[in-house]
Amino acid sequence: IFKWFIGKVQKPLTIINFEKKTKTNLTDWPNFMAHSSEGERYSFLTTLFLGPKGIFANAKIKNSLLEDIFCYVMGKKESEKASLNADFLFTMLKKIFEVSPQTKQMTLAFGLFDELLKNRNQIEEELSATEKENRKNQSINKFLVSFGTVGIKLGQILSKQTELIKDEGLRTLLEDLSDKVPAIDKRFVLAALKRDAIDTSKIKSIGRLLGSASLKQVYLVTMSDNKEHVLKFNRPMSYYEIPENMTILKDVFASDEVTSKLPLSKELLKAIDESVNRELSIKSEMDQQKEIASFIKKNTNSINSWSLTIPEINDKLVGTHLYLDQFAKGEPLKKELLSRLAEKDKKNISKLIYTSLMEQIFINGKYHADLHGGNILVDPASKTVNLIDFGNCATIGKANKDLFIDLILSIKSSNQSKISSTITAMLASASDLQKFNQQKIQTELTAIIIDKKGENAKISQKIRSIKNFLDKNAISFNSELELLLKVFDTTDYISKNLTAEEIQAIFVDAIGFLTIMKKYF
Q: How many other CB atoms sit within 10 Å of the CB of residue 181?
């Protein structure tokens, strides 16, 4: 029945017999479902999956259907089903589904079914290889978006796994997952404004939706003085969904099938859990935005006529689940914009952002931990770079900061023994230390350190190479350092625009000459 609905088989005998018995014709039923409301589709799917004789009632049928669905999603033919277990994405998506409770399975199934229905009239043989690949990528995205906030965070982590996800198009879509979340009704926002007794007389109108992410919705607001602001509103269900989804994610990464291919450490999972829960707190986000804005004003905030700013918060319009700040003009710092920028502008923007980030880490100790392209708005006309979305900020304490500085300075001097002793002090547990001390690990680590060719000459790239190497060997740092090192993955697209010498100079300036003198002399 499911395959018939997505246009993969002829009308099944069960349906034919039902038509005869009831004297009805259901030939157009799949087309009707494709154009029906979400509520009607969800009711139908709930009956099909959870009814007394539903798919979930029979474990064998359920597993078979799962394989069929994911086989179709991954763009594989029936004859290729046996090879699916070697595909990491298939393994992970199937595992997410398996460990989820039935209510969550229904949400995931609904997200996939919605995507499959859209494509049901496409004849596979008539699609080009590129169209097939795009359809597969969209289906994978739909599944992860259906998983909610944690699924989107997972997608963004996967977007950096170039060895596991070789398709650049899919990695780009995974990185932009937060842009694909369906919007909720604006009436939720109006209700929240009323509930928090906010003086709406200062608001002239709540206009267009600027962004709809897994945790927040963002609207353009015109104030009574005609100035434009941005209203940020936490989705009501996120407070309930996140704990459940994090439990599922931890179960997924407790599976050998998944961790053998993507060793996401317990420490990084802990860091993701902490960062997602931080984003739930409106007060925390506001405090972080104010602190980093104040810090940037006193430090590097302009380079070669380009300036760095953070929107100012309107303290008089703050609620339990929402707040307003200034509207920041600009376009997200993504491939579309980067391809149009002049090389010197690209260089200046990258240097400005990277300098500020390193100063936030080494001087301030609190930093923006999620500087993907969507959180950086660039306005070429005014030569302004705006940092937005401070829900995911992180702190690094003095002890870990000193260790990280030691790591950078020892990488700079290619001091292998110092790097080894520093990493030893950074590790999360005794078992990590035991693995790290193996001769094979030390030999491979030396090769990474002494490699001075091309990209790997950059300090930032060597940090990433060391971290990726340790991940592959299931060796992890403590959670504070795990989150810090993840920043180098997130900002790799920025550091690519800078030379090894420029990155080294930024690190040295941020760490400070006196610190270097003290440590070395």
A: 21
